[in-house]
Amino acid sequence: MEWLYVLMPIAGVKIFWPGLIILGVGVGIIGGFFGMGGAWMVTPGLNILGFPMAFAIGTDIAHMAGKSLISTMRHGKFGNVDYKLGIVMLIGTVVGFEIGAQAVMYLERLGSVEKVVRYLYVVLLACIAWMVFHDINVKKRKAAAYAAAGKGIDPLATGIEWHKTFHAIKIPPMMHFNEAGIYCSMWLPVAVSFLTGALAGILGIGGGLIRMPSLIYIVGCPTHVAVGTDLFEVAISGLYGAGTYTYKGRTELVAAIIMLIGASMGAQVGAVATKYIKGYGIRYAFGLAVVGCMISIILKLAAKQFNLPFLDDVSTFFVLSVVSALSLYIFVRFVQGCKKEVAMIAAKG
Question: CA 58, 88, 207: angle at the middle one, nearest 5?
């Protein structure tokens, strides 16, 4: 089965190329749908397939930049991108990203980058999964209380509303962000983008894994606007990150190109699917994706910790299954939505 493996000339490792295609197409769909580059799946996925962690980070950032740019243009047509908010956030993103990238180079010199990044991933994914499902449960409790009071179904029920606390902090300059429909201190999105940029540089992600929920829960963006705006931010920060890691010799362009071909097509499907799955539907699917990715990393850690090589194969199979299953779900909803929309247009005509 040697033909199923291709040599990566810069990293010096042989990689299962069908796995690269699955990651590319699947994460293209998922990234376009959730409003992020999808690196929170691809970086550990590339590492699981055999890339050293530093190369997994640099390669994924390179593939992510082009794909996110395509998704941003599609979301922009739907009015899902607050460009003003995205540009303001670039201030913190670029500075934070460079700090994170330098931290990775330092950890690599110490020989600790693999272990530290994996454990940091697990902790971060666990926190985000808790936040998403806690938000959903809070919304359900509010809706149940509304129904118990004999008022029927509350169409305005919301989950956690941390953004209201942050909006009360009035540090000049104050800014209106029209597409997002919010008015807050400029320093709120800058602070969020700095923290997410730093973590993005360390973990090899565009920051969407952290920034998309941060835009919803801290900045106060509607979900669909958070999706589009985050993709805009991912595209810009990704281009900067790709240049940084390529200069440091940690980008495997062959793998990036293989994934980008599939990802550019998948991103179109994912972006359009947000027309048919809104708000808490996106958040619920996002939470399941985070849990699935976290489990795959834990399996990889257990394989090394307890010297159980078969868990490496289980981890690879699991992460590819999660990507495939989520991609299939989004694609099916995309097709169903398109059929319904065509039927409605035909009925009117």
Answer: 30
